[in-house]
Amino acid sequence: MLIHNLYFKNFRNYSEQEITFTNGINILVGSNGQGKTNVLEGIYYLLMGKSYRVNQESELIYWGQKNFYLRANFEAYERKYCLESYYEKGKKAIKINQLACQKLSEYVGMINVVFFTPDDLNIIKSGPLERRRFIDLLLIQVKPAHISLLNTYIRILKQKSILLKRSLNKAAANDQLLVWNEQLLETGSRVIRNRYEMTEKLQNQCGKMFSKVFGCHENMDLQYVSLGRKSLDEALAYFPEALEKQRDAEIERRAVLVGPHRDDIIVNINGRSARYYASQGQQRSLVLCLKLAEMEIINKEKEEYPILLLDDVLSELDEGRREYLMEYISNSNKQTMITTTDLGQIEKQKDPAVYIVKQGTIRRES
Length: 366
Ligand SMILES: Nc1ncnc2c1ncn2[C@@H]1O[C@H](COP(=O)(O)OP(=O)(O)OP(=O)(O)O)[C@@H](O)[C@H]1O
Fold this sequence. Notes:
Oligomer: single chain
Domain RecF/RecN/SMC N-terminal: 3-351
Organism: Syntrophobotulus glycolicus (strain DSM 8271 / FlGlyR)
Helix content: 40-55%
CATH topology of the largest domain: Glutathione S-transferase Yfyf (Class Pi), Chain A, domain 2
GO molecular function: ATP binding; single-stranded DNA binding
Strand order of the largest sheet: 2-1-4-5-6-7
Pfam families: SMC_N (PF02463)
Distance between the termini: 23 Å
Bound molecules: adenosine-5'-triphosphate
Number of helices: 10
Binding site for ATP: 30-37
Shape: globular
């Protein structure tokens, strides 16, 4: 999968800019705060319909302006796609090949992307929300129907939560809860299944990468845990019982206590929690493996590699892992965008296109 060019208008610190990419390695180099990450954010936003960094689209508009516009030409399976995105006053308009799109699921997953930033360390270090977000974002890319599944689940969750917050009468709440629980069980079970299956694929890929990066004496383990259960069958069998058991507690605490919105993925290195016991370097390498596993899973399922966006991650890795990563991206057809403040880290690579980024302008150097 390829991006050929990107045009920005009033996006972040770019008032107007066009950039043409090569099919191999593209390096965006510049001092801090010049607009390197903003380029990657623009690509990600077009493909995923969301920013990787912020929830409010208004933050993406060039300060003092009223709207932003992005356009890029992509290629996948020898077909060409022009994606456009326009945002103004809380409304966004998306077009593919000049036809308007109504829903994210109509275009997310069409061209895939893997974004790796230093903040991804939070997948290991932060709470369960980050890990659920990680697995859901991967699922959305290979299985766009997961978007509507999640949206339905969130809607049910909100409705049930409103009911629990409003209800003063236990008997009335009980009746209505039965209805919402039935829907929560049906949709929640499908969310759980998707996440278990994807975690297993990640474990297989990531485990292989991890042994390559660290040598075979180290191992890692990913385990999706739903409702406290480590196996999919056990979790699904226990789900209705858990909803029943917790009904009184949910009414009392006025909160939805059971469902995949409370699940987690346990990440272990050599049998111990990576969140609590792994060194910062081990955590970084583990995230690197997770991201490369994402690349491999998408390639396996879609039969083309996604576009890889590496945001200032080279300086975070030691020499050995950096070499491993550079070798990985140099092999076979993986279009990669790398941001860096120091070209020295990547100079040795074959024929990269280098772009100098300075105060919201981009100039191709070689
Ligand atoms: N909505 C906006 N309008 C105008 N400028 C913005 C907007 N949002 C962020 N910026 C500016 O964009 C710049 C940050 O760009 P970016 O994050 O791409 O930097 P970078 O080159 O990747 O830097 P670093 O090497 O520090 O990561 C900052 O100077 C910031 O003030």
